[in-house]
Design brief:
Keywords: Coiled coil. There is one protein chain. α3 packs parallel to α8, α7 crosses α8 and α8 runs antiparallel to α9. This protein is α+β, with helices and mostly antiparallel strands. It has one domain: Aminoglycoside 3'-phosphotransferase, Chain: A, domain 2, CATH 3.90.1200. It has a four-stranded antiparallel beta sheet, with helices on one face. It has a three-stranded antiparallel beta sheet with strand order 5-7-8, with helices on one face. Strands 6-9 form a two-stranded antiparallel sheet. It has nine helices and nine strands. Helices cover 47% and strands 13% of the residues.
Length: 297
Amino acid sequence: MTNKVYQINWPTKNGDPHRKVLVRVYGEGVELFFNRDDEIKTFECMSTHGQGPKLLGRFQDGRVEEFIHARTLSAPDLRDQEISSLIAAKMREFHSLEIPGPKDVFLWQRLRAWLGLAKKLYSAEDAKEFQLDTLEDEIRLLEQELSCDHQEIGFCHNDLQYGNIMMDEETRAVTLIDYEYASYNPVAFDIANHFCEMAANYNAETPHVLDYSVYPDPGERWRFVYNYLMSSGNEPSDAEVEQLVNDSEKYTLASHLFGGLWGIISGHVNKIDFDYMEYARQRFEQYWSRKPLLMGS
């Protein structure tokens, strides 16, 4: 939904199996969302940590990567208990990485930057439709209410939809790919964003339509967080699990603003065949409908 990705393979002269690489051509307007040089540095750092494909080369509008011999997950895979537990453990490992640079929470800064950009791209009428003039107050409220002393900060993926998760069918090893939005953030936000992505099926006939009837139920959320904490090697208490489950639920509000702003900006700059504006409407609708329940009036 951001880049065009190609598999390139060719025969070698010495008769070895075909060589295979992945070529990523950057999507239009992506520089509005993140700094590409920072993303490349993250990509290289991930590679040195053994977390993803190796960077093989760069060109003006893209790069060449090692081809990972694994399958990309599908929407139903996220509901599979075994696969979900593997994702939870991998996410915990990812959050524990030591990445060079500032370790401050980047979520609120990014939301404000995207909001400012969205206001510049759209007319006053469009801004009114999406209530953009009210979102600065909403971001301030969420930052004030959700920032707390007990929350854990880690290096977060921030875009953990099924298409960014790969699994080797033989070893069951999970690899997280595409670090364009990765930054230090509350780990509860990354978990929340992953839960929200379970409502999406980007391979359906209407890939922009979200189905919140399949949002993980309380049991699924509890089990995921338990597996996440358990993967560190220590048995978490029920109180620890409940705390992170509750924090993650509240951070779904930040995820909806994140997705909504991403959608309306993408709708202006991206030519990929996807109804970004309708996607944004659904994310904002979820924000306003869920806020009274999660945050009070």
